[in-house]
Amino acid sequence: MKEKQRKKFHWWYIPLGIVLVLVLTAGGLVLWMHSMLPWPNMVAMTSNFQMELSDPMRAYVVGGERDYSTLPEVLALQDGTGVETPEDMALRRAEVLDLFEKHVYGVLPKNGFETSFEVVEEGEALDGAALRRQVKLTVTTDKGSSDALLLMYLPNSDRPAPVVVGLNFNGNHTVLDDPAILPSYASEKDAAVLEEERGGKAERWAIEEAVARGYGVATIWCNDFAPDDAKAYSSRVISLFDEPEFKAVGAWAFGIMRGVDYLVQDADVDAARIADIGHSRLGKAAVWAGANDERIALVISNDSGNTGASLTRENRGETLKSINALYPHWFCTKYKEYGADAASLPVDQHLLLACIAPRRVYVACAEGDLWADPQGAWNSLMASRPAFALYGLDVLPDGCVAEGETQPHAGQACWSGAMGYHNRAGWHDVQREDWEFYFQYMDEYLKA
Length: 448
Prior knowledge:
alpha/beta, 13 helices, ten-stranded mixed sheet, single chain
């Protein structure tokens, strides 16, 4: 009987198998993402990879007409009672903040803790133009304490300075090439890595320009309050509270507010002129902190996107469902229940912006940053106007937008006494162009 001939193995089986695995993996990933995102939003995701879209495709993703028929009213209480006076609006604000805490961001502790401060380093900086001050902030509860390091640069002046405060993504040492900046407390990097990274994100903070224009800048590494990690986010300040719904964005907002605790008692800071700023996920925290903390005179949102400044309903970028799937530690458990029906959410982001009134709000977007839905951010800001108008403040007029456009074009800024907006060419980032607009707005509306 003839022996059965073995099949010959061809070398090209290996690359073919690899290609098949890659195709199946990519297809599975696309199908998984599509389960959370409509096709226009899938196209918007390409902005994360800085891919240019054709004009017809951009129009398809951005879209001027959106269905906001279920958008909650700004000037109406939950029971339908109209809001007609500033006193009524104070009730509406309290109601809205409570709804956001229960349905979106989770617990934001307001008591049950103490905050203490210790100046651990200070000295001249920027060739004598600035004073650098580094402050240990300690939050203490009956469960223990957690430290965060605030880094601040103030103009070398005999007058208290307005200050912009915000969290940074990579550690205090990255915001300026200054060898005196101490490592942030949550950092586990060795000295060589810290030196290599020093000043690597200075473009995002424009500290020298701020000081030259008379503004102070204060920043804290977000990880000092909560690491952006679904498994470790509760390892720092959250661990001090018995609150399972105290989540990462809430912890970052809490951190900004603890920074404000320090700023308002520093004699070199003009406590009446504090602004907070945040980019991307930290922009979400800046808006949440600014809506809650009335000591913040100006709230600046830079590309904060979904659950930041942009409306959740009809969002053409990141959706409620996808953001909770990818970042389950950012928001409260209840928020995930609205993934299949965002229209049933009892709030939307225009209400959060409205809670900033009668203070000031500034929303900034990048034209190419479709994932953050700049059109939704513009629509949100415009929908918040009734709250500011109720206080007699000047709001942005409809005429800001040219005929045939659905929002200000790239490079255009629109602002009033109550609010500002600009759209920048480019992608998801904070650039010097953004800061130039912020400085111009602050020169007009924040300085004494």
